[in-house]
Known about the structure:
Elements: E1 2-4, E2 13-14, H1 15-19, E3 38-51, E4 54-68, E5 75-90, E6 108-113, E7 117-119, H2 120-131, H3 168-179
Parallel strand pairs: 5-6
Antiparallel strand pairs: 1-7, 2-3, 3-4, 4-5
This protein binds zinc ion (ZN) (2 copies).
Amino acid sequence: MYIRVSEIPGGGLDVFASRGKASIPHVLEGMDPAPLREVRLVDADLLLTFEGGDIWIEGSFEAGGEGVCDRCSDPVTLRLAKAFQTFLTPKSRDRAPAGSVELHEEDLDVGYYDGTGVETNDILWEQVALELPMRVVCSEACRGICPACGKNRNLEECSCVAGEAKGSFEILKNLKGKKE
Length: 180
Ligand SMILES: [Zn+2]
Ligand SMILES: [Zn+2]
């Protein structure tokens, strides 16, 4: 939802409190959730404050993600959550932010906006994207699929010994057989 800076009252705008929790975009438009298959927002809070031409954003989100384990291909569900603060300054402005605030806080991101308003989807998207894992595993201890016999080593021991792996043709055959 697009919020114009002119719509932000003096005390700030609590976006989802004023527009209703139903206005939370559960599926973020145009978002690539890779390496997850899907990410859905469960809850979000967004407080916008407009001051001296800059927008201060304080918010949090809670999301559920789904994907498959990189090692064993089992389905994985995970929860992503974060509280964040972002500071947006107009793109055209070529000067230090109002009051020369010291922006050294680690949690504070600094960005730009067009001077007119902000798209709340984009704000949330950016924060969710920062929390996406590099790779998905069902557990750090996941032993994955045996490259030699194709068995899920979390479920059954196989007697393959490293160095004794079968030829690549055999592996392909096994993998193929598993999919069918
Ligand atoms: Zn796994
Ligand atoms: Zn094996």
